[in-house]
Amino acid sequence: MKDPDHGEKPSESGASAAGRGDGSKLGPRNGKGKRKRRKSSATPSAIASQPGAAGLAGRPAGENDAEPARKRKRRRRSKSGKQQTPGASAREGGGVQLVEPTLGERKGHKRNKKARHRRGLQGRPLTSGERQPTQQRAADAGGNARSGSPASSGQTVGQQRPGQRAEQPRTPHVATGEPPAPLYAALDLGTNNCRLLIAQPTRPGQFRVVDAFSRIVRLGEGLGASGRLSDEAMERAVEALRICALKLGARTIRRSRLIATEAARAAENGENFLERVASETGLELEIINRETEARLAVSGCSSLVDRETRSVVLFDIGGGSSEIAVIRIGDSRSNRLANHITHWTSLPVGVVTLSERHGGQHVTPASFEAMVREVEGMLARFDSPPVEALANGASGSGFHLIGTSGTVTTLAGVHLDLPRYDRRRVDGLWLTDDEVSAMQARLLSWDFDARAANPCIGPDRADLVLAGCAILEAIRRRWPSTRMRVADRGLREGLLTDMMADDGAWRRSRPRRHQRGTNASGSQEGNKA
Questions:
Q1: Tens of pLDDT, residues 399-426
Q2: Sorting pLDDT into bands at 50, 70 and 90, what band is 390?
């Protein structure tokens, strides 16, 4: 028999025709949403001659056509002798008590069916409300999706495959009991580097870095001779700040603080440069004074001071200035290490300015000693307690140095003979006085090419590292210590620590401020910073 629309019409008898009184062409659905396939070559006589077909053929036509497929499935399951459906007694005789399936059994069947359905859709494409984690990270960073993702391979996100059921988008899983921690951002535009950190608070006094950026811009190049920022240096800095602006704009930042240090502080055109930065990048930077810079350096290294330490001399060798803070802890230790600063100074010399005055590429033992003596003359005017008072007696067990700068981290990387710089191995490393002296002598014996070839120095720092070693040597002569701790952290970490502490991000006794909601004044303060 020919169907004018679909060609050969399948047989109207057999098991698959039981629920097809309306003349539909397809059989009933199975448990996975697919239709059973029938053999179109089966004839009514062949099916009727099969064993068990008599029960189907002898059934009243009305019941055969009108009974839903779900009832037929229940009837087939009830033939095991456990249950009987209402239509079974008319065909198999009386005397059988009819038991209707309970509501819990029906729901259990549905749950099993849904579980099978979920297991079968683990590789489905995302709907329009979902995003892959890699795409989310790429979008947050302002970049494109990684190759191989649906967006990059031509597949539309949310596109449904043929034969696949559409599902409602699922929201990403969030840990119960507490909303996601807010994000904080800190930017430090120094004489040599432009650095950015975006982090969220975790355990008390600690945070997790979400995104970071660092680039050598040498903003203070030529500043010592001219007193002004050069056009080339400002262009390099603006280009790096544009990248920082993209990273900040791609995330929801709870609070941020963006600072500029010695180069912008000392230059005649420093304020004009910051106005250009604001107009071209949208970032408003503040120039901090030297005392604030020293306190931020101490705040960033608070976790590296042991409980048994009684006093510390912490120094930050920068590109245009070097900050030194004397910290005496005593018996009662405050939550903020900066509160224990008793003396501080900021030397108007850094690795960039010192190398420009004495030469950084070709350094001889004589020129190196000249740099050390220049810094020693600056330290002689610094009024601080004698080292005997800081060392707590002859043993000196309660006193040590902490160095936070590219100079000390470079020495640590060379000491460990790292094939490439690894912050995890450098930050917090202890170096003895003899080890520091050996590393300085080793670097002084290398020429410029050998220093540039070292993976922990590189060509960008090859002409600056010995100037930093000269400043370090002057500090060690003023405050002799048997050991020094290396800190790969600085102003950015201090900014983040202070902002999180001010917001009460680590307080467990009461709800955090971001959980109670951010007021307008707090948002404006973060934007202005």
A1: 899 999 899 999 999 999 999 999 999 9
A2: confident
Is pTM beyond 0.85? Reply is no
Q: To the nearest 5 percent, what fractions of the chain are helix, strand and coil?
A: 40, 15, 45
Please state, in angstroms and rounded to a whole number, the distance separating the CA atoms of residues 348 and 191.
12
Give the angle 431-494-274 at the CA atoms, nearest 5°: 120
Identify which of 416, 438, 419 has the alpha carbon closest to the alpha carbon of residue 486.
416
Q: Give domain limits for the chain.
A: 180-288, 291-502
Give the DSSP H/E element, type plus range, for residue 316. strand 311-317
| Planar angle of CA 488, 297, 279, nearest 5 degrees | 95
C-alpha 493/C-alpha 301 separation (Å) is: 8
Q: What topology does CATH give the domain 291-502?
A: Nucleotidyltransferase; domain 5 (3.30.420)
Can you say how many angstroms the Cα of residue 505 is from the centroid of all Cα atoms in its chain?
18
**DSSP of 148-203:** TSTTTTTPPTTPPPTTPPP-PPPPPP--TTSPPPPPEEEEEE-SSEEEEEEEEE-S
Contact 167, 122 (CB under 8 A): no
Q: Which CATH class is domain 180-288?
A: alpha beta
Taking residues 105-113, what's their average pLDDT?
55
Q: How far apart are CA 443 and CA 411, in angstroms?
A: 9
